[in-house]
Amino acid sequence: MFVTHGWLSSAQVAWVQATGQDLLTFFDTNVCLVNWEQLAAYPYVIAVSKTLIVSGYMTEFIRFLEASGIPLSEVTLVGHSLGAQISGQVGYNFRGQIGQIFGLDPAGPLFTGAPSSFRLEKTDAEYVQMILTSRGTAGVFFGEGHDNFLPNGGFVPQPNCVTRESGDTDIAYQITCSHSQAHVLFRLSLNPDIVYLGQQCSSYSLYLDGRCSSNPVSKLGVYSDRLGGNFYLKTSPDPPYTV
Fold first, then answer.
1. Sheet holding 76-80, edge to edge
2. Three-class SS of residue 197?
3. Cα-flanking dihedrals φ and ψ of residue 200, to 5°?
4. What is the rounded radius of gyration, in angstroms, for the C-alpha atoms of the chain?
């Protein structure tokens, strides 16, 4: 399992380290934390262009693993923000034969409408799940995975990111906090005792109206039932954010 951070981040930050530890705790797997800190430190437009360098190195390493006897179907990519788009690029390089990709609020700016080779979509792995928490701001607006989980409709601010002020600083905080909530929920969901159930629905408004109450439900994260479609759920303001 590969965990890839996003813009202005590194593999040393708390959530990446904690996710790696939790993967080792709950799964019998090898874990690789992908550190592209130096390239991620560039201004956003430049960092976006550097993602191809990162995905290129990851592709080479996974090809080495495949030659060493590890099937591509047993490879899992987990990426946040630009890391999610990097994971999509890697999946594209392997013509969708990677086992699974979890895109944690894939970065939106400069990726919306970009070629398939450059952004994460469902053809990049046997199974692609997206968790959207800052739709149309830091993250993509539409999920392009087999399963797309949209906590609180996927919009800013997520309940734990609400501030009382409305200045630029507060708006920026709400966006970055909400953008990060995707990797928070994913990491917590690795624990089988923490479950976020999403309901299959065509829109958040229909979900709120209770018009999807008879539709199937599925678990956010690795324990998903893989039913396909968009899944809406509510979270609470306080850890572990279950309702």
1. 32-34, 2-4, 76-80, 100-104, 127-131, 147-151, 229-233, 197-200, 217-219
2. strand
3. -65, 125
4. 17
89 with 118: CB under 8 angstroms? yes
Q: Is 80 designated active site?
A: no
User: Which of the residues 5, 80, 146, 179 is marked catalytic?
Assistant: 179
**55 is an active site residue:** no
For helices 14-26 and 168-189, what crossing angle results, to 10°? 10
What H or E segment, with its residue span, contains residue 16? helix 14-26
Per-residue model confidence (pLDDT) at position 41 = 98
Q: Which residues are registered as beta bridge partners of 130? A: 103, 148
- The catalytically annotated residue of 5, 55, 80, 105 is 105
Q: Is 209 a catalytic residue?
A: no
| pTM (global) more than 0.85 | yes
Mean pLDDT to the nearest integer, 47-74:
98
Whether pLDDT at 165 is above 80: no
Contact 46, 8 (CB under 8 A): no
User: Hey, how many other C-beta atoms are within 10 angstroms of the C-beta on 174?
Assistant: 20
Amino acid type, 165: E
pLDDT of 166 reads 76
| Annotated catalytic residue, options 9, 55, 81, 224 | 81
